[in-house]
Amino acid sequence: MLLMNASFVLVTLAVLKALAVAQGSNPSVMIVLLVRNKEAYLPYTLSQLSRLDYPKERLALWIASDHNQDRSAEILHTWLERYNLPYLSVEAVVNASSPPLRPDERGAVQSPGRLRAVGDMKQEALKRARTLGMDMVWFLDADVVLHDRYILRRLQSVRKPVVAPMLRSVGGYSNFQTSIGRTSPQEEDAFSRIYSGRVRGCFAVPLVRSCVLMDLRDPRTAGLTFVSQSCELQPEVETLDDAVALAISSRNSGLKMTICNGEDFGLMPVPLSPTQELKDEWQNLLAMKLETLIDYPPMSVVPLMRLFLPPPPTKSRLGFDRIYVIGLERRPERWRRLKACFDEIGVEAVRMLAVDGRKLTDEFLEERNIHPRGEGRKKFINKGEVGCSLSHYYIWRDVIKQNLSRVIILEDDSHPSADFPARLRQLVDEADRLRPEWDFLYLFREAAFPDDFEPVEGSEHLIRPGFSYTTLAYALTRSGAETLVRDDPLKNLLCVDHYIPLMSGEVPFSEWMEVYPSAGTLRVYSGRENIIEPVKRIGEHGFVSDCTEVDDLFGEVSYGNEVEECNMETLT
Ligand SMILES: *[C@@H]1O[C@H](CO)[C@@H](O)[C@H](O)[C@H]1NC(C)=O
Ligand SMILES: *[C@@H]1O[C@H](CO)[C@@H](O)[C@H](O)[C@H]1NC(C)=O
Q1: CA-CA distance, 77 to 74, in Å (whole number)?
Q2: 372 against 508, higher pLDDT
């Protein structure tokens, strides 16, 4: 029945339940959701409301949506029809008949009329919450992705009149400001300390937005308003939106807003720029999904919302014969994460089980005539590194055996961003055009010396790199694989991080040149910038390196510092 009318006003007068339900320990909360053109996010954000860990009979919904150009209204209808019942009250005005643009609008950018309308709607919601005697009101943007179901309880436990969880965005944009108008260097510094997590906890700030919980029981909130009194307009405030109006009224009430960053609460998209279009929200969402995958399971929706998800992208190998992902059997979660990323961006990869350094025995090595060696300043090689080198070696052999002409090899702690396929294509196109003889392309590298590279003439992206570490991600041709196995590297097995530079001629004084006649013949190129990144950097919370874990050493163990250098495991 809800879907019958083009626009509808749904008011479940279950409000009366409010009187019946005992106060209990759960404050009543009105959730205010304004929706416009949020088709990409809504299936996820509504699912998170469905899953919120909070008694629904203590939650009221206040939803308004108009001037949509996408399926937002339809999604809201569908969700409300199915999920409205348990709530304390539902007031939803979803106008499916309003035109796509307001009279003063040109494109996706918020117009003054729109900003005013949003302020007015929030103000109306606030007034309604007060009338209904709600304990709290939670203003939640329809594109905010929260990482857990307990968020509301966590915000309540802060016990502040106006509190927001800090949200990150892929572009470094957040939902708090350390000044209302122009920002001083000190205020910028305060912002970056909070945003980066160098300080953790809850902090008083002049402005929060996007996910704001207000405690109406606190008398100081009586003066809060989303509607700007124009005489208060400060010259330094550029856009007087609802959040700025709220911040000004908060300041005038002598009330501090609170931002909390004690946990990783969630993500928000980067606002669309004037040159972007609505469809760019899908890219924003994709970026948020990939970011979520770094630490969390894939974002998912309640069954009813699956209807509104776009079909998954068709998979490709990005012009390569095979994309190998090397991973240890005992780390299946890494493959699951990377596979989930690839499912999102439409990449087909195969998993290759790595040789596990922890399980390596002398017998295994003897049987196969494998002789691990140290290289250069590093006089030893540890078991993790041997496992790593062997894993890469067996893939090179596989490339030759299967007669593949070009492949990508990734370690399973790589993490692609949304533009990985496009940037890979650009790089490979340039390499094919300017250096068609290429053997090996770094997709990620750590340069030993940042400026140590030669540009390739006529190229935008392609360089000839100097000594570089890591074999996290690279492309390899069959001729490259042939070069890499030519001199039987098992007999003098070096750490693969050193072996590649040796074969590309970037380790000119190595004592291993003699036993490797092919040293210097591997034609190695790289992107000027990395086109894929490790999921965690060394030293970052959660970083684990299976290649450098020091269980046991082979070779001549040398002096202190170098042990440290290679012992980078930071188990948490
Ligand atoms: C829907 O929008 C149209 C055009 O803006 C307006 O005339 C109409 O009153 C709105 N309906 C509701 C229920 O708000
Ligand atoms: C390997 O593949 C190439 C084409 O990439 C083909 O010319 C060659 O005959 C193949 N070799 C074998 C042994 O299948």
Answers
A1: 5
A2: 372
User: Using CA positions, which residue lies closest to atom 8 of ligand 1?
Assistant: 98
CA–CA gap between residue 131 and residue 440 (Å, rounded): 68
Predicted structure pTM score: 0.87
Of all protein residues, the one whose alpha carbon is nearest to atom 2 of ligand 1 is: 98
CA distance readout (Å), 113 to 101, 119, 185, 241, 565: 11, 10, 33, 10, 59
pLDDT confidence of residue 358: 87
Distance CA 397, CA 409 (A): 13
In angstroms, what is the span from residue 97 Cα to ligand 1's centroid? Answer: 7
| pLDDT interval class at 566 (50, 70, 90) | very low
| Those residues with Cβ within 8 angstroms of residue 563's Cβ, 6 or more apart along the chain or in another chain | 550, 557
- Element (H or E) spanning 440, and its range? strand 440-447
Q: Mean pLDDT check: name the lowest of 24-38, 137-151, 226-240, 500-514.
A: 226-240
Nearest CA to ligand 1 atom 5: 98
CB-defined site of ligand 2, < 6 Å:
403, 405
Q: How far is the CA of 361 from the centre of ligand 2 (A)?
A: 37
Whether 97 lines ligand 1, by a CB cut-off of 6 Å, is yes
Q: How many angstroms from the chain centroid is the CA of residue 331?
A: 21
Q: What is the pLDDT of residues 221-232, one digit of tens each?
A: 999 999 876 645
- H, E, C per residue of 231-285: HHCCCCCCCCCHHHHHHHHHHHCCCCEEEECCCCCEECCCCCCCCCCCCHHHHHH
Predicted pLDDT at 171: 80
pLDDT value for 221: 95
Residue nearest to atom 7 of ligand 2 (CA): 403
The position carrying tokens 């509808």 is: 8
User: Is 196 near ligand 1, meaning CB less than 6 Å away?
Assistant: no
Ligand 2 mean position, distance from CA 435 (Å): 22
Q: Is the CB of 95 under 6 A from ligand 1?
A: yes
Higher pLDDT, 3 or 173: 173
* Ligand 2 center from residue 518 Cα (angstroms): 23
At 418, list the tokens.
Answer: 């949304």
Lookup result for tokens 């016990």? 159
| Ligand 2: residue whose CA is nearest its atom 3 | 403
pLDDT of 562 reads 31
Q: Tell me what pLDDT residue 543 has.
A: 66
98 close to ligand 1 (CB < 6 Angstrom): yes
User: pLDDT (tens digit, 9 = 90+) per residue, 339-350?
Assistant: 999 999 999 999
Q: Longest C-alpha distance within the chain, in Å?
A: 87
How many angstroms does the Cα of residue 403 sit away from the middle of ligand 2?
6
DSSP state of 375: B
560 near 522, Cβ under 8 Å?
Answer: no
Mean residue pLDDT of the chain comes to: 88
Cβ 369 vs Cβ 442: under 8 Å: no
Cα 391 to ligand 2 centre (Å): 24
Which ligand sits nearest to residue 67's alpha carbon? 1
